[in-house]
Specification:
The structure is a homodimer of 427-residue chains.
Chain A: E1 15-18, E2 27-30, H1 32-38, H2 60-66, H3 82-100, E3 111-118, E4 121-128, E5 136-143, E6 152-158, H4 165-169, H5 191-197, E7 201-205, H6 221-230, H7 235-251, E8 256-266, H8 270-279, E9 285-289, H9 295-301, H10 324-327, H11 330-336, E10 342-344, H12 350-362, E11 369-371, H13 395-401, H14 413-423
Parallel strand pairs in A: 6-7, 6-8, 8-9, 9-10, 10-11
Antiparallel strand pairs in A: 1-2, 3-4, 4-5, 5-7
Helix pairs in contact in A: 7-8, 11-12
């Protein structure tokens, strides 16, 4: 019996669980070596979650992981016939609407609360009212070139984790009386400002809990996520609903051409973008600024034990939408955006780009999905080419295998801005 | 404007969020003082999550907490008429069955895998098969006094967080070839052994992820909970299903009188006990060995900022069942156990005991709910008497206000064993 990785968990010593917390007072001793050996000779690699010899899992991790081991119900199949595509896409949209649980749009319309000028555009601050108990503000950047007489194209900009609408908008210290944070040097991710400078009306909304939605200075997204889940909702459901209010408002502005609206999502912001893509057929084009990830697969393969014998935890609970991963994985949703144009700016596995490409071809939108790898992986000979990821990875190994150059993660303005401007130009 | 608690979060300095993680690269500065001041003059106590002056929350914490602020749909109302009680109880049972999402009982029956003898009873180890991909074992303690000719009463014992079936059973080192952990000194919580010594057949099952269900020596209940939630299930749903298999098996054993079966839950184990109580009308009596907590109220009032400006996080995600708290809180479920006898061994608020008492009276089971406070709070003059808890508590303040003497948390054998034996004695 080969225990290559057993030094991490075994070594013949007892592992001590000190059980802490509210209801806990118990100290239990667990014989890790004896336990692991009991799993049988097949389990010769502790990096992988394996059942015992009769195919049954003894560990709860194995049991519960097996619940996600089948294929998603609405996975895109490349053997789908062209005439089946629209029906499949409708099923994806229906499932997404059910999972997002958006309430009815509020009767109360957004209200303007402040305004300031930057060079070449004005910035307005508006408030929306997603719930009777909630107020959420957003910023609108309106280029001087856009008027009621000559309505312009527009883009909803959704920040990544930790980003704010002010940061995306390049709002300066003192621009608004009550605002934070000041961003005198908006670095490389002033997404909304970049689009506005290129002549697009740009709207920026915070992700739930971040920026102005912080709780006494802390972006307490974990508690907000938990409370939403307790209430049968989810972070993504509420977040995409907040974004949607700004999008619905945008369609009604006289200086916006409602036929030329796009969404640009960065990192965490790609999730509400995917939700909105399924819920709103009026959106004309999408900028997907992240690597294209199979988030379900990622949970299954990130099982390497670290130096303390722990496996990586799936990403935190703002990404949890109960039942979501039984329906589809991210590439399936991007496939269901077809034939509407999408730009993917930060690579991933060519496997998934091929899948998206096949969906676009099937839908009659061949070429409408434009995919770019990270510069580091631009040359195909530098990329890993896998149809299936192996189990037992740690996060660095995972990133390497999916061609994600995470230190270079950032808004790819040079790709995104001209592409979106072109997609939203008058035909 | 009074900022009594502002030293914790304000002090005129900037709070720096260093945003870390997979998709994060952003450092954002947040002006905590300015932000808190923007909430308006009413918000003069940062311990409490308050809306701004128009009643709307600016913080996501406030917005999302407001989703739980109404009353649960199936809250027990003491103004209910006796003839309404059974209908209400059926609604509670239906909601619980929906929330627990138990699959069909498996076709494959449990199988005995080992046996050993202790003084006065034998201990058998059995395997059950909750899923095609899962095996879960349980221990059965069968007193010598119990035979097929003279079937005995029986009790399903559910451990607390960190407890194991071996610990509850007082199983000794070497009792079973492959087992862990050895418990040569089972301390004060050998619940199953105590019942067996008193002549009851006792079954002990691990909570999901603990003991034998650990993952290479770690009780990775957080990942298991997360995976269950991803799959649209929950820790409590799967856990109560595992417990239920042992209960169903117990009913069929020739040495058990199926008319005399009880459930004894300790701490975390009270949760699957409450679920089973709603799902299984055959259970005759319940030992609820914890303080009676309004878990929904607890989330709402635990909002004190700690020395680092953080509010307490609601308990971890093994307690999360999406939508559960919209339906009922724990005292409502205990009320719906009426008129079946229940013993509550570790106090709580008299408010909640009165509620339970009223339900029992309404159901025709007056006196069937027996409630004991912690010895520290046995004298009414030592107890806090509240109808509603104030917001802004930390955990210690909460425990004090609900009369929970947490250091004395433990199986109350002296109360539970004779009580349950009496309830399950032949009439």
């Amino acid at each position: 019996m080969n225990w290559g990785g057993a030094g991490l968990v075994g070594s013949g010593i007892w592992v001590i669980f000190v059980v802490m917390g509210i209801k806990c007072f118990l100290v239990a001793l667990v014989a890790a070596t004896a336990l692991c050996e009991a799993w049988g000779a097949e389990n010769n690699d502790s990096l992988v979650v394996r059942p015992r010899s009769d195919g049954r899992h003894v560990s709860a991790r194995g049991m519960t992981q097996s619940l996600l081991s089948g294929k998603p119900r609405l996975e895109f199949r490349s053997d789908m016939k062209p005439e089946e595509f629209a029906g499949w896409r409708d099923s994806v949209r229906t499932a997404m609407a059910r999972l997002m649980r958006h309430p009815a749009l509020p009767a109360q319309e957004p209200r303007k609360v402040a305004e300031t000028r930057h060079d070449g555009y004005r910035v307005e601050k508006w408030e929306a009212y997603p719930l009777e108990t909630a107020v959420v503000s957003f910023l609108v950047l309106i280029p001087d070139s856009v008027t009621e007489e000559s309505p312009g194209a527009a883009v909803l900009c959704i920040p990544g984790f930790g980003g704010t609408k002010e940061y995306l908008s390049g709002v300066r210290s003192g621009d608004f009386a009550l605002e934070q944070p000041p961003v005198d040097n908006p670095s490389t991710n002033a997404m909304a400002r970049e689009y506005a400078k290129a002549g697009l009306v740009a709207v920026a909304v915070d992700n739930v809990s971040f920026g102005e939605q912080a709780d006494c200075g802390r972006a307490d997204y974990l508690t907000s996520s938990r409370l939403l889940l307790e209430a049968g909702w989810s972070y993504l459901g509420f977040n995409s609903f907040q974004q949607r209010l700004a999008l619905e408002w945008l369609k009604k502005q006289p200086y916006v051409d409602p036929e030329r609206i796009g969404v640009s999502g960065f990192s965490l912001g790609t999730e509400p973008m995917m939700a909105l893509a399924m819920l709103d057929g009026d959106i004309k084009a999408f900028v997907y600024n992240d690597f294209l990830c199979r988030t379900r697969e990622r949970i299954m393969v990130l099982t390497a034990l670290d130096s303390e014998g722990r496996r990586p935890f799936p990403n935190s609970i703002e990404h949890l939408i109960p039942g979501f991963l039984l329906e589809f994985d991210f590439p399936d949703i991007v496939a269901a955006m077809a034939p509407r144009p999408v730009l993917l700016t930060e690579g991933g596995l060519d496997r998934d780009f091929r899948l998206v490409g096949e969906a676009y071809e099937l839908s009659g939108g061949k070429g409408n999905a434009e995919c770019h790898h990270y510069p580091k992986y631009a040359d195909a000979s530098d990329r890993s080419e896998l149809e299936e990821l192996p189990e037992g990875l740690n996060l660095n190994e995972f990133f390497r295998l999916v061609n994600c150059d995470s230190p270079s993660h950032g808004f790819k303005a040079a790709l995104a801005v001209p592409w979106l401007k072109r997609q939203l130009s008058k035909q």
